[in-house]
Write a structure and sequence with these properties.
The complex is a heterodimer of chains A (330) and B (326).
Chain A lengths: L9 H17 L7 E3 L2 E3 L1 H24 L7 H15 L5 H25 L4 H20 L4 E2 L3 H8 L1 E2 L2 E2 H19 L2 H10 L1 H6 L4 H27 L1 E2 L8 H11 L11 H20 L6 H17 L4 H14 L1
Antiparallel strand pairs in A: 1-2, 3-6, 4-5
Helix pairs in contact in A: 1-12, 2-7, 2-10, 2-11, 2-12, 3-4, 3-5, 3-10, 4-5, 4-10, 6-10, 8-10, 11-12, 12-13
Chain B lengths: L5 H19 L6 H10 L1 H15 L7 H17 L5 H25 L4 H19 L4 E2 L3 H8 L1 E3 L5 E3 H19 L1 H11 L1 H6 L4 H27 L1 E2 L7 H11 L11 H21 L5 H26 L11
Antiparallel strand pairs in B: 1-4, 2-3
Helix pairs in contact in B: 1-13, 2-8, 2-13, 3-8, 3-9, 3-11, 3-12, 3-13, 4-5, 4-6, 4-11, 5-6, 5-11, 8-9, 12-13, 13-14
The chains are: A mainly alpha (330), B mainly alpha (326).
């Protein structure tokens, strides 16, 4: 249970290596990297770059799921923040654009958090409201059009590079380190896990469960807003209908692949991000191998089922055998 | 407030909404518009009935939209490409969807997994399978399709009650009888109230779970066939996001998302409210379609908040502080 590289991440790392090997087999130049105009290019960088939105979403989602919650609204929040960023980009500076987009994310998070922690709604229901209405709000902002922009600052956020690394990847890495430092550098992570393990017992033990729940939904929406800005910057426009569509499902999938239990009580940030990368590596591999992208959904379905069966309480006997084997090997 | 059942509130909202619309646009209050309302929302109504059973039993089914998409593609390909007689194709696709639902129910029960995530996998699976069959829209030209589309009962005032609207009404009626009058229906409520209590009372929880998800997928299959009648085509991207509309309709209809309470009639009214919002926006002409989503979201919030209030009132004497036990 150490902060950054728990031992239980072995299965995920092995899975990533296997998928990378398969990708290498279908596309021999998969690991090629080259530096051009001060930015790295190559399939690997592409995986990281395209995986960024889901990785960011999974950073917030993993904390929500750790409290036994779920946030279905992240895709809609992405659409809202992307719409705001795109509408303001050509008339305002980058700091104002970012502040407005992330501020909208903060409001969405407060709304979700209010419904779950103060009104005591089931998380899946509470966030369903914003999931349905959010896309409508995003379309209200863009007035139903696809808003494009040319502000070089915002474009840089999606397509620029820092020390050769694409900016989105750098941002995701920064957010991972920031989130990790905050929740694992303090007792916060433990308190979140306690809330998910047994909210009532934690409350009686003096944990501010309401504040914890509020905080994770706010953080989740802020991560989603950031992902929305990056997605909009990447395509230099905001499409309220399609921005972040179904990404909430990918984010949940990434968290589940990362071994975080949907029953709450434990989580790993690094493994959730690794889960996002596994999904993206699969997607890229399917594209490179020349199969139609429609196979993505089938592959994802099989992966979800496999991971679920491994997580199933009924099969925990099997899981503990695996854990014992791993321990004797180590 | 306490004596007012949620269904009654839904009915009042529907009548009041309809009256408001009729005041602004007198033409709305015609059998023509009402007939179209029923036709346009026939598939939504059918699939929402199945969802009502699932949600009352304490579960959720996210796969219904994908099952509709799969059904339309399968039916279109079977009739047009493989030369299967339409009725055989219908039976085959309904058997497939029922088996699919039964499999999801079995996985949920046997492995004790959250329905949310199992049906999410089912959603990917069904959508992926329909993509594999065909990514293009396949038009259906079989004669039975034009016969069914042309068939309609004339209503006084020039309205038409189409065949698919009649199918929907029959299923609503059948669903209501099944839920409210049979042992199966009583078991559905028992399961939603408390699984362990239901099990101790002698309900075969496993069998019930399988049957409930089978029913939901079967109705989604029927909705898919109805949808193919409605559009005369099969398309793998049809009915994307319908699961959300369906859940919204069920909740607006007064069914408790935690399970144990709800009614088929309420769901039917919920579907009509969503249809009414859409009709109003069409009549207005200046409002854009995204207002439907916002209005649905607002209604969802209002009804869930109301339920939350009712539940809190009911629990008050027992436990004063429910806390954040969600």
């Amino acid at each position: 249970m150490t902060a950054l590289l728990p031992r239980r991440g072995l299965a995920q790392i092995l899975a990533l290596i296997v998928i990378l090997a398969v990708d290498r087999a279908v596309s021999p130049q998969f690991f090629d990297l080259r530096l051009q105009d001060g930015r790295l290019f190559g399939s690997l960088i592409d995986v990281l770059n395209r995986g960024t939105p889901v990785a960011l979403l999974s950073l917030g989602m993993v904390l929500v799921i750790a409290t036994r919650g779920i946030d279905l609204s992240v895709g809609a929040v992405m659409a809202i923040s992307g719409a705001i960023a795109a509408s303001l980009a050509d008339s305002h500076g980058l700091p104002i654009v970012l502040a407005a987009a992330l501020g909208a994310g903060l409001l969405c998070g407060l709304w979700n958090g209010f419904l779950v922690s103060v009104l005591g709604m089931q998380p899946i229901v509470a966030t369903l409201i914003l999931m349905v209405a959010g896309r409508g709000i995003a379309q209200l902002i863009t007035e139903g059009r696809i808003v494009t922009f040319s502000s070089p600052d915002l474009v840089w956020l999606g397509n620029g590079a820092v020390l050769g690394v694409p900016v989105p990847v750098a941002i995701a890495l920064g957010m991972l380190i920031l989130t990790g430092a905050v929740v694992r550098g303090s007792a916060l992570g433990l308190l979140i896990e306690a809330t998910g393990g047994n909210a009532r017992a934690s409350e009686l033990a003096g944990v501010g469960t309401r504040a914890m729940i509020m905080a994770v939904y706010v953080w989740c929406s802020i991560c989603a807003a950031l992902a929305g800005v990056i997605a909009a910057a990447d395509i230099m426009g905001a499409d309220a209908n399609n921005a972040g569509l179904w990404l909430e499902l990918d984010a949940i999938l990434a968290v589940v692949i990362g071994g975080t239990s949907l029953f709450g009580g434990r989580f790993s940030l690094v493994l959730a991000v690794l889960g996002a990368l596994i999904i993206q590596t699969m997607n890229t591999g399917i594209l490179l191998s020349g199969y139609p992208p429609e196979f993505n959904l089938l592959v994802k379905a099989v992966v979800v089922l496999a991971v679920l069966l491994l997580q199933s309480p009924k099969l925990s006997g099997f899981g503990s055998i695996v854990a014992r084997l791993r321990r004797t090997k180590a | 407030m306490r004596g007012l059942p949620p269904v009654l509130i839904t009915a009042i909202v529907l009548v009041a909404g309809f009256a408001l619309c009729a005041v602004q646009f007198p033409n709305i209050a015609s059998t023509r518009v009402v007939g179209n309302l029923l036709t346009d929302n026939a598939f939504l109504g059918i699939v929402a009935i199945g969802m009502t059973f699932v949600i009352i039993s304490g579960g959720i089914d996210l796969s219904v939209g994908s099952v509709i998409g799969f059904t339309t593609v399968f039916v279109a390909l079977a009739i047009e490409r493989w030369g299967v007689p339409p009725l055989v194709a219908f039976v085959a696709v309904l058997a497939l969807s029922a088996a699919f639902g039964a499999a999801m129910g079995a996985v949920i029960h046997v492995f004790d997994l959250p329905p949310f995530i199992v049906t999410l996998a089912g959603m990917f699976l069904a959508r992926g399978a329909s993509f594999l069959l065909s990514t293009e829209s396949v038009p259906i030209t079989a004669p039975i399709y034009s016969t069914v589309s042309d068939f309609a009962l004339r209503l006084p005032g020039g309205g038409r009650l189409t065949a698919i609207a009649i199918i929907m009404l029959v299923i609503v009626l059948g669903g209501a009888l099944l839920l409210h009058l049979t042992r199966f229906g009583a078991n559905v409520y028992a399961l939603g109230g408390s699984r362990s209590t239901a099990s101790l009372m002698g309900v075969a929880v496993g069998k019930m779970t399988v049957k409930i998800y089978m029913l939901s997928s079967l109705l989604a299959g029927i909705a898919g066939i109805v949808f193919s009648f409605y559009t005369s085509a099969g398309y793998s991207l049809s009915a994307v996001g319908v699961e959300l509309d369906t859940i919204a309709a069920v909740v607006i209809g007064g069914t408790l998302l935690t399970g144990g309470q709800g009614s088929v009639i309420g769901t039917f009214l919920g579907v009509l409210i969503q249809g009414l919002i859409q009709t109003y926006i069409n009549f207005d002409g200046t409002l854009s379609s995204w207002w439907t989503k916002i209005a649905t979201g607002v209604l969802l919030f209002a009804f869930i908040a109301l339920q939350q209030g009712l539940v809190a009132l009911a629990r008050r004497p027992v436990a004063r502080s429910a806390g954040a036990a969600s």
